[in-house]
Design a protein that fits this description.
Blueprint lengths: L15 H14 L12 H8 L3 H13 L3 E4 L5 E4 L5 H12 L5 H22 L2 H20 L2 H18 L4
Antiparallel strand pairs: 1-2
Helix pairs in contact: 1-3, 2-3, 5-7, 6-7
């Protein structure tokens, strides 16, 4: 008796640009390429990877958009690996919001949940200097509130959250 043949779906091969980006990410993750390092020239990299320069550029643009590399022009230019930056997360969240994948309420919920953890850890790890900075920030914010200076109050509010994050000692 023959058993039924399982149904298989066609597999789309990975796009070359995605594979190039994956390789570069792995080299960074393994420490073989470090922040500040310059990647080989476009011509050299395209030859090593057996791809066109256009395909390579597509991969480099994706990595640049993700905040992993910076493209510099000129004689000393090229693709340089960047140190980690939370800007990529902010950009990703903005993109998800604009695409309708997440709502403002979901973003607010996530921020509240994260803030809860950040505050608890900051309270455990903060130094006297951190607490002095919190107090100075709150006092300046109260003064801006009394003066009706919304711009300063907004800047101080963002600064307060940065101070909290720094007090966790977790970049």
């Amino acid at each position: 008796m023959n058993s039924p043949t399982p149904a298989f779906a066609a597999v789309a091969p990975a796009r070359a640009a995605d594979e190039i980006a994956r390789q570069i990410r792995e080299l960074v993750a393994s420490g073989q390429i470090k922040p500040g390092d310059r990647l080989p020239s476009e011509r050299d990299l395209a030859q090593r990877l057996h791809v066109s320069r256009n395909t390579l550029r597509e991969a480099l643009r994706a990595l640049e958009h993700a905040g992993m590399i910076e493209m510099r022009k000129g004689a000393a230019g090229g693709a340089f690996v960047l140190p980690g930056d939370s800007g990529a997360i902010v950009t990703g969240l903005k993109d998800l919001y604009h695409l309708g994948a997440i709502t403002p309420q979901q973003l607010t919920d996530a921020r509240i949940w994260l803030s809860d953890v950040v505050v608890r850890v900051a309270c455990q790890r903060a130094t006297e200097e951190d607490f002095e900075q919190f107090e100075a920030n709150v006092a300046a914010s109260a003064q801006a509130q009394r003066a009706g200076d919304f711009g300063t109050r907004q800047r101080l509010n963002r600064e307060f959250h940065v101070l909290l994050a720094r007090a966790t000692r977790n970049p």
